[in-house]
Amino acid sequence: MNVTQDLSFLSLITNAHLIVQLIMALLFVISLTSWTYIFSKMFAVRSARRLTVEFEKTFWAGGNLHALHQNAGKDRANSGPLARIFEAGMGEFIKSKAAYTSARETMDHGAILDGARRAMRAAFQREMDVLESHLAFLASVGSVSPYIGLLGTVWGIMNAFRGLANVQQATLAAVAPGIAEALIATAIGLFAAIPAVVAYNRFSHDIDRLAIRFESFVEEFSNILQRQSR
């Protein structure tokens, strides 16, 4: 056992057992990846909420739906999730009506409306899949990181007590550095887990609220299409 009186954070890491150092390195990579996803998801959710509000204002202002559909289709990547859901439903509605007209068949308004609703549901699922990406990783980090850190702590403490077998007189000064080195792993594990849990809960709440707005829009827009198909 490497006994040292230097109990600085850096010294505790560099003097830790190799297995403990590997666990610390793993936790550092996990934490860095977690923070990357946290910031990217924060900007993505904020942008989705802003674009959703802007589209709702434009939609409920009472403009022409065909013009709004054309505008939404021009720049789908930056139009926002709700605009893409609208574009999918309106596009399917227009195509279905055009197909009946070109075939000179009597329009099945129920089939047209069902097609538009299915298109919006499919677009809704795609948008939710994008918004919920990496949330499972954050949940896993919040659940697993403390146990990974605890594994490093257990290994380090075990190694510290094994080193006492070679010491004639066991004192607190002899065992304290080894235990402190081991406890660093738990601290790093908690440092990785706590932000991930907080971010996961926050993003889940925000995404659920967006999902409710999307579902409400699908139902309201379906009613509008039903009135227009008559």
From TrEMBL:
<comment type="similarity">
    <text>Belongs to the ExbB/TolQ family.</text>
</comment>
<keyword id="KW-0472">Membrane</keyword>
<keyword id="KW-1133">Transmembrane helix</keyword>
<dbReference type="GO" id="GO:0043213">
    <property type="term" value="P:bacteriocin transport"/>
</dbReference>
<dbReference type="GO" id="GO:0051301">
    <property type="term" value="P:cell division"/>
</dbReference>
<feature type="transmembrane region" description="Helical">
    <location>
        <begin position="18"/>
        <end position="40"/>
    </location>
</feature>
<keyword id="KW-0812">Transmembrane</keyword>
<feature type="domain" description="MotA/TolQ/ExbB proton channel">
    <location>
        <begin position="96"/>
        <end position="215"/>
    </location>
</feature>
<comment type="subunit">
    <text>The Tol-Pal system is composed of five core proteins: the inner membrane proteins TolA, TolQ and TolR, the periplasmic protein TolB and the outer membrane protein Pal. They form a network linking the inner and outer membranes and the peptidoglycan layer.</text>
</comment>
<dbReference type="GO" id="GO:0005886">
    <property type="term" value="C:plasma membrane"/>
</dbReference>
<keyword id="KW-0997">Cell inner membrane</keyword>
<dbReference type="InterPro" id="IPR050790">
    <property type="entry name" value="ExbB/TolQ_transport"/>
</dbReference>
<feature type="transmembrane region" description="Helical">
    <location>
        <begin position="178"/>
        <end position="200"/>
    </location>
</feature>
<protein>
    <recommendedName>
        <fullName>Tol-Pal system protein TolQ</fullName>
    </recommendedName>
</protein>
<keyword id="KW-0132">Cell division</keyword>
<dbReference type="InterPro" id="IPR002898">
    <property type="entry name" value="MotA_ExbB_proton_chnl"/>
</dbReference>
<comment type="function">
    <text>Part of the Tol-Pal system, which plays a role in outer membrane invagination during cell division and is important for maintaining outer membrane integrity.</text>
</comment>
<keyword id="KW-0131">Cell cycle</keyword>
<dbReference type="GO" id="GO:0017038">
    <property type="term" value="P:protein import"/>
</dbReference>
<dbReference type="InterPro" id="IPR014163">
    <property type="entry name" value="Tol-Pal_TolQ"/>
</dbReference>
<keyword id="KW-1003">Cell membrane</keyword>
<feature type="transmembrane region" description="Helical">
    <location>
        <begin position="135"/>
        <end position="158"/>
    </location>
</feature>
<dbReference type="Pfam" id="PF01618">
    <property type="entry name" value="MotA_ExbB"/>
</dbReference>
